[in-house]
Amino acid sequence: MTSKILHLIGGDADIGTSKIFWIGFVIAVILFALYPTQVSEFRASNVSYYLLNIPLALGMALLWGYCGVLSFGHVAYFGIAGYTYGIIAGNMAGNSLGSLAGVLGGLLVSAVVAGIFAYFVFYSRVREWIIPILTLVLTLLLETFLGQTAGYQWRVGSILLGGYNGMTGIPSFQIGSFVFMGNSFYYFCMVIVLACYVGLRMLLNSKFGQVVTAIREDPLRTEVFGYDIRARKWLVFVLSALLAAISGLLYVQWGNYITPSQVGLLSAALPVIWAAVGGRTSLLAVLIATIVLNWVTFTLSSQGNQYAMVIIGAALVITMLFFPRGIVIMIAEWIGKLTNRKNTTVIR
Amino acid sequence: MTSEYALETRNVSKRFGGVVAANNIDLKIEPGELRCIIGPNGAGKSTLFSLLCGIQRADSGEIYIGRHNVTNMQPFKRVRHGIGLTFQTNRAYQELSVKHNLMVPNPSLAVSKEAHQQGEERLMLALEEFGLNLNDDTLASEIPHHTLQWLEISMVLAGFPDLVLIDEPTAGMSRDETDRTAMVLKKLNESGLTIIVVEHDMHFVKSIAKKVTVLHQGRIFIEGNLDEVATNEEVKKIYLGHAH
């Protein structure tokens, strides 16, 4: 049983299958765990922000990289979860179960919206290239709708949706009387990111994951092996929407506010860029790229630099021209060749 | 209504604009048969296969797999009645390893416990004869073309079907490779697997077939033993052309 689980985690659905890799992985986790003890709470909180984006990015890797379906609007589920949490937890402020109810509500509403949307997209067998456009339209509609919710009439219970200024004063996450803030929130994010990463690795190494990858490679061939590819794609879409929702929940718990720009065009492009730059066919590559690119943008923009997004855009162009399969993947393969062992499986 | 055949079509027709790709096709395949379907280019051989698998829907007529009327079923549901298909152009997953390729098909589709057991034996036989390995990490794009053809046949067998449709398995193969393919298909057939092969290569057809169906312009032109068919003057005309 244990060996089976280890096999699922360590399988070759992702880069890094050697002993050396796993030692490095554990060291990295320990360093991340020690980080808040060495720096100010403010800096740790910044890193929390990089971490909380990872589930969204891993969802992109799952959907686009492994299943071959590009969504340009997964921030919609990020936003839906964030707003729903704000409404539920805000209305239940003072009740210690409020934030938990908000989390469940956020996940549920995101999953339902994603489920209905994906049903129409996949069961009508629309062409692959239309899906990015449809997903983008959904999130832009959501942005437009939320943008015009200024005013007292746009109120759910005691919570104002707030139009372009967004929703403020969203409660932090709490269990009982313990509120996750500062360092405790950092560790909360870390545990969730680890769970998402390990869980997805297991899923993708399983039979289910192998079939998902086969669907990416050749949908018709896979269907003629007896798989209902519509149902599989639907499920993967909803799962990745749930991952986006987790990021949305963590985001509002971190900053205690959300604005419609979080579901806007720029925000929608970012997860796609993280996945493309790192290498969408590897969970770990996307994870690393998400941390690095968020660090770059966050650091630059907090120094008042206007060019953060230009630099991110340039990173995308450079990736597409010189590292079409992703910078992190290609570096990993290079290291694999250098150590002249079969440490890294070639993933395309 | 049901059918006692492994596969039966009743008056199946399919039209693409002005072209009749399948014209009232009545095909009956006995359980355990090895049937070759031949015919010139554009005779409707591959169309017939995609109609059988449900990749395309027939305009009229009925299709039975075993006892099941599958006429209105989606491809993935038909496969669940024990049918497997290789495509005319090889569709092994190029960017995945041989191992991964062989893991994708679903052995739990086997219709019974015996079918499961038998499916496993057939798969092992094919892998051994073709020199393929279940744990091979090589990417499919890095193996030679004829091995890819063998890989796709093995993949179909990994779904433990009762009936396989194989579309031009020996295209691009050398004589030796063609003979090996024929030998394996014969052995699989001897184990009770029903096989329908579309093929151009007459050498290959001669080496495996007992019964041959000739398609011409979407119709079944003639059906019978290889000798009968091969000596038929009309067949020589349409299939072999005047040069032969």
SSE map:
The complex is a heterodimer of chains A (348) and B (244).
Chain A: H1 2-10, H2 19-38, H3 41-52, H4 54-66, H5 75-91, H6 98-123, H7 130-147, E1 155-156, E2 159-160, E3 167-168, E4 174-175, E5 178-179, H8 182-205, H9 207-217, H10 219-223, H11 229-255, E6 257-258, H12 265-278, H13 283-302, H14 308-322, H15 327-338
Antiparallel strand pairs in A: 1-2, 3-6, 4-5
Chain B: E1 7-16, E2 19-29, E3 34-38, H1 45-53, E4 60-65, E5 68-69, H2 75-79, E6 83-86, H3 98-103, H4 113-130, H5 145-157, E7 163-167, H6 175-190, E8 194-198, H7 202-208, E9 211-216, E10 219-225, H8 226-231, H9 233-240
Parallel strand pairs in B: 3-8, 3-9, 6-7, 7-8
Antiparallel strand pairs in B: 1-2, 1-4, 4-5, 9-10
Helix pairs in contact in B: 4-5, 4-6, 6-7
Low-confidence stretches of chain B: none
- Bulk shape of chain B: globular
Biggest sheet architecture of chain B: 6 strands, mixed
Average the pLDDT over all residues of chain A and give the rounded result: 92
CATH topology of chain B: Rossmann fold
Give an overview in words.
The complex is a heterodimer of chains A (348) and B (244). Chain A has helices spanning 2-10, 19-38, 41-52, 54-66, 75-91, 98-123, 130-147, 182-205, 207-217, 219-223, 229-255, 265-278, 283-302, 308-322, 327-338, and strands spanning 155-156, 159-160, 167-168, 174-175, 178-179, 257-258. With 348 residues, chain A is mainly α. Chain A has one domain (2-263). In chain A, the strands form three sheets. A two-stranded antiparallel ribbon of chain A has the order 1-2. In chain A, helix 1 packs across helix 8 (182-205). Chain A is globular and about 60 Å long. The two termini of chain A are 30 Å apart. By secondary structure, chain B is of the alpha/beta class. Chain B contains nine helices and ten strands. In chain B, strand 9 (211-216) and strand 10 (219-225) form a beta hairpin. The longest helix of chain B has 18 residues, at 113-130. Chain A binds chain B through residues 12, 207, 210-211, 213-214, 217-218, 220-229, 342, 345-346, 348, and chain B through 53, 55, 74-76, 79-80, 85, 87, 91, 93-96, 100, 103-106, 109, 137, 139, 155, 159.
